């Protein structure tokens, strides 16, 4: 892997909460335009690893390297780093007091100093991209879960991120709404958006992922190309997990 | 009993002055009370322990003693330490500090009612702490805080009558003096009561207006044509109902 196509690297990352060690020396490399899916049993540290990437959870030990710069050393630069890293949460976390389009406009206006008119244009453009332009003036509690999550994706895209992180984006959704969110994610991934996604949706993983990373108990146990992983060449523990979630 | 006399009191210069003093004390004390409350609420979130201890001490002192005691204390006891305020400012200081203690609790609960995930979502977008507080936390907390805060504001209008014990010429003192001078208790106190009700009504309506101004959905509905006299009447009714509570000290 050449240096210029690598966008993100986690080097020997540990994360400890009080006396609980959640991450035990994780290494991960993500190339530009690559889509990596993180899977593993609950409590294995997937979400924590994801949050270490944009320093929402600063690593206790080890380093995060983004575009060739170590970013985990000085947390004062975290705000600036996060402009380049979009994040989507399990519970959407749309700002309840703002309409769909205003949710998208807020960060470009307050962080990048974009004018209201430009931000509004950007908001509508992104809502078209996630296929809900007609919901621009609706408030979060007037939207379905699937629509809320798509607005949340648009909100993250508004900062023109270089990489997108998804933390179980469909886990809080009713089954009939999962598809519309995964479709948007797949489209973005196919357009070349670098993606790291924690999910249990194996269909999405097969369709969109270049690599599958399997975690258990704070360690990365498998890191393989998608075809290999699903082609029965994953390690024994990962195979067992797969058979469990595929019923 | 004479209605003419009630009207005469209502329009007299001394009652008008009294009502004005009552309104002034209320508004000035509310301003400093909300300010104090906001500072205390933020100070409670500071990690530095001595700051938190000070806030607890403040809340303990001002919620733990009667506001009437605080007024008399500031007016009568502080001068013996060479700290002197005139009656008006003694009243304002006592009411502000007392109000600050209650406002602090209300504002704190409002800030806490905004879920942590909202702050994290702002962080993830690269927003600064101040930006998150101003554009994400405060607008959502304001909507939670407004109804109890409105109660406090109306409560303050009535509590301000306590300053009459340190001879501030507020509405109640004027009414009481007039009544005992003319032996016309019914007329004088009726006039004062009408002023109080008028002022509290204005406060309730102001609260209702603020609540709908902070509710984006209501604002949108209004823009879409929910105007008309019936809509206005319904709004006033709702505002009176939501502001209906009382505070007992």
Automatic annotation (TrEMBL), chain A:
It is found in: Cell membrane. Its main location: membrane. The keyword Cytoplasm does not apply. Residues 8-242 form the ABC transporter domain. Keywords: Amino-acid transport, ATP-binding, Cell membrane, Membrane, Nucleotide-binding, Transport. One of its GO terms (cellular component) is plasma membrane. It is a peripheral membrane protein. SUPFAM superfamilies: P-loop containing nucleoside triphosphate hydrolases. It comes from the Bacteria. InterPro entries: AAA+_ATPase, ABC_ATPase_HisP-typ, ABC_transporter-like_ATP-bd, ABC_transporter-like_CS, MetN_ABC_transporter-like, P-loop_NTPase. GO terms for molecular function: ABC-type amino acid transporter activity; ATP binding; ATP hydrolysis activity. Gene3D superfamilies: P-loop containing nucleotide triphosphate hydrolases (3.40.50.300). It holds the Pfam family ABC_tran. Belongs to the ABC transporter superfamily. This is Amino acid ABC transporter ATP-binding protein, PAAT family. It comes from Pseudooceanicola nitratireducens.
TrEMBL record, chain B:
InterPro entries: AA_ABC_transptr_permease_3TM (IPR010065), ArtM/GltK/GlnP/TcyL/YhdX-like (IPR043429), MetI-like (IPR000515), MetI-like_sf (IPR035906). Residues 19-207 form the ABC transmembrane type-1 domain. GO terms for cellular component: ATP-binding cassette (ABC) transporter complex. It is a multi-pass membrane protein. Pfam families: BPD_transp_1. It comes from the Bacteria. Keywords: Amino-acid transport, Cell membrane, Membrane, Transmembrane, Transmembrane helix, Transport. It is found in: Cell inner membrane; Cell membrane. One of its GO terms (biological process) is amino acid transport. NCBIfam families: HEQRo_perm_3TM. Belongs to the binding-protein-dependent transport system permease family. HisMQ subfamily. This is Amino acid ABC transporter membrane protein, PAAT family. It comes from Pseudooceanicola nitratireducens.
């Amino acid at each position: 892997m050449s240096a210029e196509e690598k966008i993100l690297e986690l080097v020997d990352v540990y994360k400890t909460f009080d006396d609980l060690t959640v991450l035990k020396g994780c290494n991960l490399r993500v190339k530009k335009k690559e889509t990596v899916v993180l899977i593993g049993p609950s409590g294995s540290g997937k979400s924590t690893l994801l949050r270490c990437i944009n320093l929402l959870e600063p690593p206790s030990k080890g380093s995060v390297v983004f575009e060739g710069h170590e970013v985990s050393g000085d947390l004062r630069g975290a705000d600036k780093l996060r402009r380049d890293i979009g994040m989507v949460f399990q519970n959407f976390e749309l700002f309840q007091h703002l309409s769909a389009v205003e949710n998208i406009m807020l960060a470009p206006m307050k962080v990048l100093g974009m004018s209201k008119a430009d931000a509004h244009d950007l908001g509508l453009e992104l809502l078209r991209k996630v296929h809900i332009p007609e919901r621009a003036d609706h408030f979060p509690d007037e939207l379905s879960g699937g629509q809320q999550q798509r607005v949340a994706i648009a909100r993250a895209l508004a900062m023109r991120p270089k990489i997108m992180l998804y933390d179980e984006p469909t886990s809080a959704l009713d089954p009939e709404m999962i598809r519309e969110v995964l479709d948007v994610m797949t489209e973005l991934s196919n357009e070349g958006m670098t993606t790291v996604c924690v999910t249990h949706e194996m269909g999405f993983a097969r369709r969109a992922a270049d690599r599958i990373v399997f975690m258990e108990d704070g360690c990365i146990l498998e890191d393989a190309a998608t075809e290999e992983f699903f082609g029965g060449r994953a390690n024994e523990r990962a195979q067992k997990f797969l058979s469990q979630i595929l019923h | 009993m004479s209605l003419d006399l009630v009207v005469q009191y209502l329009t007299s210069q001394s009652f008008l002055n009294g009502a004005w003093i009552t309104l002034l004390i209320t508004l000035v004390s509310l301003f400093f009370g909300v300010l104090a409350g906001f500072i205390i609420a933020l100070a409670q979130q500071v990690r530095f322990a001595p700051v938190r201890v000070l806030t607890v001490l403040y809340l303990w002192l001002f919620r733990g003693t009667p506001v009437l005691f605080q007024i008399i204390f500031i007016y009568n006891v502080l001068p013996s330490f060479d700290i002197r305020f005139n009656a008006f400012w003694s009243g304002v200081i006592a009411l502000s500090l007392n109000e600050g203690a209650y406002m602090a609790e209300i504002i704190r609960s409002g800030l806490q009612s905004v879920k942590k995930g909202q702050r994290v979502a702002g962080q993830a977008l690269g927003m600064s702490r101040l930006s998150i507080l101003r554009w994400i936390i405060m607008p959502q907390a304001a909507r939670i805080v407004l109804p109890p805060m409105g109660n406090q504001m109306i409560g303050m209008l009535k509590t301000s009558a306590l300053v009459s014990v340190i001879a501030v010429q507020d509405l109640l003192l004027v009414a009481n003096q007039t009544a005992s001078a003319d032996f016309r208790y019914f007329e004088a106190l009726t006039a004062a009561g009408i002023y109080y009700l008028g002022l509290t009504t204005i406060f309730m309506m102001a609260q209702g207006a603020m609540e709908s101004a902070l509710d984006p959905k209501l604002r949108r509905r209004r823009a879409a044509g929910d105007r008309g006299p019936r809509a206005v009447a319904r709004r006033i009714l709702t505002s009176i109902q939501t502001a209906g509570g009382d505070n007992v000290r």
